[in-house]
Amino acid sequence: MTVVNITETAEKTLDIIKAYKAAQMPLNEAQDFTDNLLERALDAIESSPALYPLDPDALALGVSIQRWLDVDTQYLCLYRYFPKGDMALVDAFASTRQDYLSLLYMTLLSHT
What we know:
By secondary structure, the protein is α+β, with helices and mostly antiparallel strands. It is built from 4 helices and 4 strands, in the order βαααβββα.
């Protein structure tokens, strides 16, 4: 089974999603939403990391990164897979409606 590590940026993007969801629902439900999103992504990537395609939006920006999509919630997980070591790095979570530049800005703002 593939070892999956989560970057600090991925943690920050989950925090951003939780804050966004908390404006629409109780905080405990927003926490459950992000916990479940993380768990589903980790399960999928651990079991079949090479199965998921390269993200076309990231490719347009010159970045080769794979994408796992949760079709139920329309959130995605961006990750890099390293077959030689059978290891993956989860880099970010985002809504399918969110562009990456705004995501990076939000991550940088939440870092300060």
